[in-house]
Amino acid sequence: MLQRNFSWARRINCMANQSPSRNFHQLHSSGRKITGFHLSSIVKICGRVEALQEGRQAHCLLLKLGFNADLILMTTLLDMYSKCTNIHDACRVFDEMPQGDVVVINSMISGLCRCHLPSYAIDLFTKMNQSDRDVGTWNSLISGLGQNSEGRAALIFFGRMRVEGVEVDVMTMISVISICADMAMIVHAQQVHGLVIKSGFELYLPVGNAIVDMYAKCGCMGDACLCFQNMPFKNVISWTSLISGYAKHGFGVEALKAFHQMEMEGVVPNKITFLGTLYACSHSGLLQEGWISFTTLVNKYSIAPTMEHYTCMVDLLARAGRFYEAHEFIEKMPIKPDAKLLTAFLSSCCHHKNVELASAVGKKLLQLQPQESGAYISLSNFYGLVGDMEGVANVRRLMLERGIRKEKACTWIKISRKVHSFESGDRSHPDYQKIYDHLRVLIQKMKNIGYVPDTSMVTQNVEELTKEEILLGHSEKLAIAFGIMSTPPGTRFLIVKNLRVCADCHVFTGLISKIEEREIVARDSSRFHHFKDGVCSCGNYW
User: Fold this and answer.
1) Tens digit of pLDDT for each residue in 328-339?
2) What CA–CA distance (Å, rounded) separates 360 from 223?
3) How many C-beta atoms lie closer than 10 Å to residue 448's C-beta?
4) Most buried among 121, 261, 281, 389, by the most CB within 10 A?
5) pLDDT tens figures, 169-208
6) Which residues contact 34 (CB under 8 A, 6 or more apart)?
7) Which pLDDT score is estimated for 19?
């Protein structure tokens, strides 16, 4: 009997790609007695595919059959509700369960973080007795905070974890490594790497993969390559991390070499690997190689392209100025383009000042009613570029009507173990007056060698001097000025921006690297830029 129950549970799991409703029907029609094994499998499937309605049906059946005292099954139910982002029902299940079970609390902490309620997760964590927490409790909170862009808080709790003598495990290290990568905190990254070696986790494949990704995202591609070479075992994720790292740094040729080496070693690429190669080609102007990569994806490996793959191809063609090829490619796609694809196309149209096509793409984009502010900002910038202030006003009105808020530009820089953040026009920093004064001195030095502020992207209808003042307050300029003020001459430093760097700040950073004889690394939302001696690693192809 037990064997038959296991058999049905396995069969339900094998049907995970089918509708949960169909699984219910097949289970009922089988005439077999429904057990906790069956319900557990169905609830897990509902959580995996976010089938909330079917999950509620399973909950009702669970109560009807008297399984509400089964702690493991109820924990699975709690997890299902949180995966369906229904935190209200997850909390109700949690409140109805016996208090004090650490596994249940760990699941609730993860659920709160998954539903973007990190402060509630912290409250639940702090209410626990220190002796009741296990390594899973700490991992749930640390990884959850990292997923909610609360990396600094996550690292504080990681520090507390070590002070309290809790032994870290592989999951702890992977979470902390990922947080260091997202925040581009190289000093923390190196310290964590040292802890990995000390704890004996370096040979674990997921940890090695995470370290390669971490160094790449911290702007240290050389260290990423060295760690990759020292890995005793490599899988497709290892190679994909390396290829994606090369792509983000604009090293397209190196990314393709790594891809071919991976194939020679018999590792089969997946769809994420191809995203890395296509991205590398797009950001390095490798048009022919990009076409070959896309053809290999479809014909050699029989992988169905996703919207992300199509977006990379459109971006590749448009960046190269092949607008009508890109437009034809979109028309022949088997799926309708989404807002991200059209935004990428619009951005290139604006960059190359293709007014006719940009206008047509912009209209299609607005019809999709995208929820991300980037689409509206690209269109507003385009109208500002061609002097259509009425178009700018219309886009802003649409944003207001649709409740779309522009994401504030923010740039971070770490000086003497402290992270300093700057927003555009920011005057909240204690040294803001010194920063602006120093910035004006730098601007004058640049103007003396021919720099002219690019005010074309300032869409406000104001005087030219006011536009220059607005450009002066861009977050990356403030961070760079502060970095130069706060470090010895010749010191290399890294800045991280949450949005794409603007054209004027790109020129500004290049000139500053030459005037101040500095190497400045800038990571924006799209890629890395390495500035040295007035030249950027992107070759102005970004």
Assistant:
1) 999 999 999 998
2) 45
3) 9
4) 281
5) 999 999 999 999 998 888 899 999 999 999 999 999 999 9
6) 27, 61, 65
7) 55
pLDDT at residue 242, as a whole number? 98
Residue type, 479: A
Q: Of 22-26, 466-470, 506-510, which range is least confident?
A: 22-26
**29 Cα distance to chain centroid:** 44
Q: How far apart are CA 416 and CA 189, in angstroms?
A: 15
How many Å apart are CA 92 and CA 108, to the nearest integer?
Answer: 11
Judge contact between 110 and 122, C-beta under 8 A: no
What are the structure tokens assigned to 513, written together? Answer: 């690297």
Residue matched to tokens 């639940």: 124
Asked if residue 473 has pLDDT above 70, the reply is yes
pLDDT at position 162: 94
Which string of DSSP letters, residue by residue, matches 177-216? HHHHHHHT-HHHHHHHHHHHHHHT-TTSHHHHHHHHHHHH
Straight-line distance from the first to the last Cα atom of the chain, in angstroms, rounded to the nearest whole number? 63
Number of residues that this document lists for the chain: 542
Given a contact cutoff of 8 angstroms between Cβ atoms, the answer to whether 338 and 367 are in contact is no
C-alpha of 391 from chain center: 31
Residue 15 has pLDDT above 60, yes or no: no
Residue pair 105/97 in contact (Cβ under 8 Å)? The answer is no
DSSP 334-395: SS---HHHHHHHHHHHHHTT-HHHHHHHHHHHHHT--SSHHHHHHHHHHHHHTT-HHHHHHH
CB 464 within 8 A of CB 455: yes
Pair 192, 179: CB distance under 8 Å: no
Rounded CA-CA distance 193/211 in Å is: 7
